[in-house]
Structures
1.
Amino acid sequence: MRKIVFPALAALLLCVVSCSKDGQVDNATVLLSCMAPAFLSPGDKVALISPSYFTPMENVDTTAMVLREWGLVPVVGQNVGETYLGKYAGTPKERLSDLLWALHDPTIKAILCNRGGYGTIQLVDLLPLKEMSDNPKWLIGFSDITTLHGMENMAGVMSIHGTMSSLIAPHHGKDLSSTLVRDILMGTIPQYEIPPHPQNRYGKASGVLVGGNICTFAPPLLTSE
């Protein structure tokens, strides 16, 4: 049996998920292509935002240092240091404000979320999909950030289901998840080799590679878009 080799746009997995065109969704049709934002170059800016739970500023500062080591320029959202109800990184409107700022600023090429937890579901009805389709750039995160990945997918834009400041900082960006995010942002796509299995069948197949938290994918199913 042959082993299977395939390229994967993944940080742990890249959210190359069924996407729509121009932010419009046809429930009867599944499209298998998304818009890929431009890869980054040294000197590009990366926004650090907290759409969910509060992140200690020491984690944000350490992640900013790591981004500089990667040759990138970190810019921290205005409300990242805010707290609301003891756990959120600001009110829904404050967290939305940082996300919109990162999307609208043409000099920002990627958006790295600091932490998951809970809270992105509060942004769904406040954020038109057109904001994402009109401003395609790499969004990185996992856990609760899955909600934003789902919105990016619906807007027809690829995003990266990968590590965040809460894990980049403790490892100082030296762990595999962090270096994969760095490489993918710069346009280096990893390949994965799967050992052969007796039940393998020869042939070709295509499909959709999904990255996300299943329990976080579920609630948006009841939203209007």
Note: The longest helix spans residues 57-69.
2.
Amino acid sequence: MQRTEVLLDHNPARRLPSASRTRLTTVYLASGIVLLAALLRFAKLATLPYGLYLDEAYNMIDAQSISWQHHPIFFFLNSGREPLFFYWLKLFLLGMGASTFSMRLASTCIAVLTVALEISVMSRLFNRRIGLLSGIVLATLYCDIQDSRLGLRFNLTPLFTLLLLLTLHNAATRRKPHGAVLVGVVLGVANYTYSSARVMPLIAVAAIIFLAVRKQAPIRQLWVGTGIGGACYALTVAPLGAYFFQHPDALGHMQDLRVVSLDQSIGDNIAAIYHGVTSYVLSFFYEGDTEWLQNISRKPIFDPIMAFMFFIGIGLLSRMAILGNTLRQHYVFPPQNLTSNRL
């Protein structure tokens, strides 16, 4: 009788082993989260926000200028900008024509891919529940939704930060030469996305120091891996570096953005750094960006409950980083996980 009931059971999920059902449920939930992220970012994309922002217009002009005869490695207009986003945008302009919608669709597709990668990477580093939780937070985070609806380059940086975390994890756990190669290539290509990506090597350095201090990898392997990754990074970023060497005035945009300056006194530089750090920390729970284009002016990144959980999470990760005997394999890089979307 029991055998007959099993044969008559037309629900395939019930006939799967428990582990398979869990994986299937995770796939369904992850797909739903990615779909929600897409709906929030694609809705009224051509008209909300209305019109093109100045930087978006410059991006459109540069992307339209790309051809087989004109394919620069750095775009000099608008204080100078890295090229990767423009080549990505060019694909959408070729397929859909030049419009506000096609411009922003290129950016929102990157954002949706970032949500999917967030789920995958955090599931790998922690577990499936944390991966799904981080995915739903990113999918519904207001500042990320508003930023991703603009056709601007910085939307590529979180994607490459997650790729870096993934490649660092694979390099540390599998300890194969190709793992270090991928870390170097991801770091190098990230330099072609946005100015802030130039500090991403610090994440890799922190990971190496963490592994060395916690003795989670032989020193010789760390040296070899660092050498391979560093060489691949140098080769990947060399064309852009050569351009900057030949055109030092192309770095003008970074000069405009820098906080410290040799023209200022030491006290002024320290005060500027203090103001920048405190403003950044306060943006998570007290006062966010004042620009209406990228935020509801002064709205913090997190609501009070989410901010509380955020700082609790920082405390737990810090504790796991210090107490090496509590670290498990998928907690290899606890300090770096905090940077995945707010670099």
Note: The two ends are 60 Å apart (CA to CA).
3.
Amino acid sequence: MILSSIFSSFGVFGLGFIIILETGFLPAFFLPGDSLLFSAGYFINRGELPIHHAILVLGFCAFLGNILGYFLGQLAEHKIESYVKKHEEKLKPSFEKTKKFFAKYGLLTLIIARFIPGVRSVAPFLAGVTNLKKTPFLAVSFISGFIWVTVGLALGNFFGSKLPNMDRVISSIVILAVGIAIFPMISPIFKKILNKK
């Protein structure tokens, strides 16, 4: 129901905008990227969305999201490094390990991260912070983005033909997924309120 409303109001570009935010803007990690692709596959099954159009728009949006995350990571690099220097004893070993890890496994991490909610938002940001080389980053981001989108749409298209009330199932999954993602952030606030009482 939720994603159906977004699609009805804004079309595939509305779904694409959510993908850009979820993959490229770290605070938006809780947005339902996988469920969104699943839902778009359901719209394809109902004949409301041409599959080639969906793959092209959403795949490119997934690519743009990674570029945004990388760019924001580069912008934050100096602030993060200065913060690490202030807390050198505690943070420098971990920061150096992260840099070495991304230098060695960064490209593989980007591919795997596409299929893991939360990590999908963090990976391009860390790639920017650790200055992963731009050309291989762009190539892997482009390819992995289109693979992720195609798999998600194909699954939604397949199950859309098997389950008659697929849109309601997806909406329930979206609400649950967002709730699980937000809970760790809001639970300390509720604890403080309860402790004051």
Note: The chain has one domain: 2-196.
